[in-house]
């Protein structure tokens, strides 16, 4: 009977070990609604979206990055990592060659299915709003097995509030047009950029009903006649050449804030540098207020 007891003990031990392994596995449901299962927190990560790269580093996981897209440039340490092309259409062979445990990318990326077909784990996350930023931080926290990923959100929230409190009353209530890039594509009221403007006491001329980042007919902006225009330097050069734009109050009265490329990176990336973005917008409102 001793051998029976030993066999039973061995079976129980195997079950216990199997249960431990199952318990250590983690699952993350991404923004596509796809549930991704990993045996353990990933140690080799490729990030194909700058905001995800920045969020990972803010969560203390910069050292786990082994590759990034060509636009990921902050913090400075990620610039030394292998670049694998654009986020929407990366060099798939280059990604595979890095042997990542997981690839992080935007839901709009066209590479998801191809990477999954090659056996890679893919997690698609793409925040457009404050709620989306909080959700993505939670998902990354689950992926990294962190107990308090929301600490980064708390820093963001406090920083944006501080920027809002710094504004004088005269800088509030201004009607703002924020151009993300030439198209023109704008930041609507429902986007994280629009939500920051709201917290700063500004009024967005692009209503939430049009979506977070709609492509506008330039005549829409002319009819809205904003008090202040916020735009990147790449789009600013030809604003007055757009039909009807030269007559808009913001251009006539030079209420135009032009941001350089580095500033635009800060402004249009939903993640840990949102307080810095709020300060840039607050300074613009203060400078251009009547």
What features would you describe in this structure?
The chain has about 290 residues and is an alpha/beta fold. It has two domains: about 30-145, Rossmann fold, CATH 3.40.50; about 170-290, Nitrogenase molybdenum iron protein domain (Rossmann fold, 3-Layer(aba) Sandwich), CATH 3.40.50.1980. It is about 40% helix and about 15% strand. The chain is built from twelve helices and eleven strands. The protein has helices at about 1-25, 50-60, 90-95, 110-115, 130-145, 150-165, 190-200, 220-225, 235, 250, 260-265, 275-290, and strands at about 25-30, 35-40, 45, 65-70, 100-105, 120-125, 175-180, 185, 205, 230, 255-260. The strands form three sheets. Strands 7, 8, 9, 10 and 11 form a five-stranded mixed beta sheet that branches. β1 (about 25-30) and β2 (about 35-40) form a beta hairpin. The radius of gyration is 23 Å and the shape is elongated. It starts with a helix and ends with a helix.
Number of strands: 11
Q: What does the oligomeric state look like here?
A: single chain
CATH architectural group of the largest domain: 3-Layer(aba) Sandwich
Number of helices: 12
The run of helices and strands is HEEEHEHEHEHHEEHEHEHHEHH
Properties at a glance:
290 residues; alpha/beta; Rossmann fold; 4-stranded parallel beta sheet; 14% strand; disordered N terminus
């Amino acid at each position: 009977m001793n051998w029976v007891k030993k066999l039973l003990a061995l079976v129980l031990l195997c079950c216990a070990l199997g249960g431990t392994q199952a318990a250590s596995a983690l699952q993350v449901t991404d923004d596509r609604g796809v549930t991704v299962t990993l045996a353990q927190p990933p140690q080799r990560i490729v990030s194909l979206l700058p905001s995800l790269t920045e969020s990972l580093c803010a969560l203390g996981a910069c050292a786990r990055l082994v590759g990034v897209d060509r636009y990921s440039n902050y913090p400075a340490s990620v610039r030394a990592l292998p670049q694998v092309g654009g986020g929407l259409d990366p060099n798939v062979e280059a990604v595979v060659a890095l042997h990542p445990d997981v690839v992080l990318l935007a839901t709009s990326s066209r590479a998801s299915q191809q990477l999954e077909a090659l056996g890679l784990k893919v997690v698609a996350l793409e925040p457009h709003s404050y709620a989306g930023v909080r959700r993505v931080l939670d998902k990354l926290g689950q992926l990294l097995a962190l107990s308090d990923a929301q600490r980064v959100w708390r820093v963001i929230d406090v920083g944006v509030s501080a920027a809002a409190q710094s504004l004088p009353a005269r800088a509030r209530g201004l009607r703002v047009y924020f151009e993300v890039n030439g198209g023109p594509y704008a930041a609507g009221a429902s986007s994280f950029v629009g939500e920051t403007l709201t917290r700063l006491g500004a009024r967005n001329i692009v209503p939430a009903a049009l979506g977070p980042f709609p492509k506008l007919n330039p005549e829409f902006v002319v009819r809205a006649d904003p008090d202040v225009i916020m735009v990147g330097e790449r789009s600013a050069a030809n604003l007055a050449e757009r039909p009807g734009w030269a007559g808009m109050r913001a251009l006539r009265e030079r209420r135009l804030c032009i941001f350089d490329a580095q500033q635009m990176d800060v402004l249009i990336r939903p993640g840990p540098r949102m307080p810095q973005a709020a300060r840039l917008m607050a300074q613009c409102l203060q400078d251009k207020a009547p």
